[in-house]
Request: fold
Amino acid sequence: MNIPADLRYTSSHEWVRTETDGTVSIGITDHAQAALGDLVYLDLPAVGRKLGGAEACAVVESVKAASDVYAPLAGEVVAVNAAVVGAPEQVNQDPYAAWLFRLKPADAGAAAKLLDAKAYETMIANA
Amino acid sequence: MLKQTPLNAAHRAAGARMVDFGGWDMPVNYGSQVDEHHAVRTAAGMFDVSHMRVVDLEGAGARDFLRYALANNVDRLQTSGKALYSCLLKPDGTVIDDLIVYFFREDFFRLVVNAGTADKDIAWLRAQITARALAPEPKLTPRDDLAIIAVQGPRARETLPKALPGAAEPVASLKPFNAAIVAGASADVMVARTGYTGEDGFEIVCPKGDAERLWAGLRAAGVAPCGLGARDTLRLEAGMNLYGQDMDETVSPLESGLAWTVDLASPRDFIGKAALMAKPPARQLVGLVLIDKGGVLRAHQTVHSDRGDGEITSGTFGPTLNRSIAFARLPVGVVPGDEVKVVVRDRQLVARVVKPPFVRNGKVLIDVAN
Reply:
């Protein structure tokens, strides 16, 4: 299972990458895409929407199931990845390149409080 | 403890993602279920369906009993090897199970029933045999010693004999919905030109001990292992019902798109006939194609039509159609071409009513243009 060391993670299987401008990119983990199987539809939050931490804000649907995506931290949506909406299979092919949306965090330190790669790996190993 | 087929180790070795399917440890995919779907539509794929149960019915009274126990008419089976799809009904006309019955001799019929309903079916059939007080009484034998492998797709005919040389003759000569019994590795093998994908193909019933070798031989011949995920998208595109989703003990076959399998024309009496004759269907099972974007059609979503509301019974994304499709139970009067609205999360998405099948032999049969 691919779990890059430089990202942060949630117990609901989102990954978080802090960009150089202080925004965070959010996607679903390799473990999540493998469990869902072939993705065919993504419903992403509108740019400008303000999200609370752990708020359900997106839906990813595979051939077999629909699953909510939760905001890993509170913040405002500043961008969505239109390319993956048109080609959801990119999330299966490279889940860490296929980000879904970007947030401007309400609290700049929030990302550092999420699970690190080691903790996430331990969590899915014990699930 | 989940039940295992004789191919369990082979699935795991091939990297299958395993799931609990009605108490059976079964492969849902070996990677991408969409790739597996396309393999069956364009080349050849294989499915382990050993969880399904073979039940042999032997003895002089076999045909008479099935004439009474099945909704379809076994008198349509007159040449050895011929197969028939039928429902098994309760006296109230609801569906206990759907099955395929194969005729080999007047004293030998073979049924293949669903995994989740097998024990219930066997108990029901035994009770009906006893109640019928047939003399001599036909003998019902669940064949737990057998495995089933389905080889499906346009290349099934050329690949199967490479793994099972004894199948070469029946593969060349069998017509669809016919079967033959041939010599296998350790014992007789049934080769049937049947399936659940809408493609040409075969279902092989062999001794459990021969299954792993056959599976490996098919892989070596280039047949792609396919899981339950692809099996579901293939059967839905092919317009084939799934017991427990599209029909069960709460509905009539006439409200499940299965009127073509119920013989109400002949004078023959059968279990459930009187109930079906007494009550004309108020609902029907139709196909839906999602027109709007906004999600995937799924079982239990509510459907609004001009004739009243209904519900999706099976829904998915159809890889060959590249669209979401479904079966829905809607009021009688809704016709192909009508537009309906399906409640998907907080939205109402437009879908068009169509007559299944959606896909047959690799060809799209419905208009998917907006």
About this structure: The interface with chain A takes residues 17, 28-29, 32-34, 229, 232-233, 293-296, 298, 316-317, 319, 324, 345 of chain B (CB under 8 Å).
